[in-house]
Amino acid sequence: MSEEPQFMAVGSQDAAFQKTIRDAQSTLDQFRRLLPRLIGTEAYPSIKACLTCGEDRVNIWLTVEVAGESDFIATLFEVPSEFEDYNVGDAVRVPCDAVLDWMYHDQGTLHGGFSLRYQRSLLPTEEHAAFDERLGVERYA
């Protein structure tokens, strides 16, 4: 993945975006069952959650370190510059019901990543390859 953070604004009330959250929540147990073999590997198991800093909010990806019974401990790997209370590497507790999306990579294939698929669909076709390259994705499962 690129070292430069890249964030894309999507309206939180957007119906298609809300569907990505429902899709992620309805398959979260499937992701959780896979985590014992994914954590600590190059599959980079990740969850997306809403992070707040003062009045600012951002939906951000975090790398899963531990999956508890009702939550995750995950670390930040990119942080918007205006979020001065957070640093790359900080651990954050995310309750399962606050997970907005999940994903992992399997040798170039992206599993999950429902919001990423939606964001990609909003881009012009000629930008898809650059989007995929930034994510390290060759295929979508």
Report what the structure shows:
This protein has 141 residues and is α+β, with helices and mostly antiparallel strands. The chain has a single domain (15-140), classed as SH3 type barrels (Roll). It is 28% helix and 30% strand. The protein has 4 helices and 7 strands, in the order ααββββββααβ. It has helices spanning 15-26, 28-38, 114-122, 128-135; strands at residues 46-53, 56-67, 71-76, 91-95, 101-106, 109-112, 139-140. The protein has a 7-stranded mixed β-sheet. The longest helix has 12 residues, at 15-26. The relative contact order is 0.19.
Number of helices: 4
Let me know the largest β-sheet: 7 strands, mixed
Q: Fraction of residues in helices? A: 25-40%
Chain oligomer state: single chain
CATH architecture: Roll
- Derived structural class: alpha+beta
CATH topology: SH3 type barrels
Quick one: overall form? globular
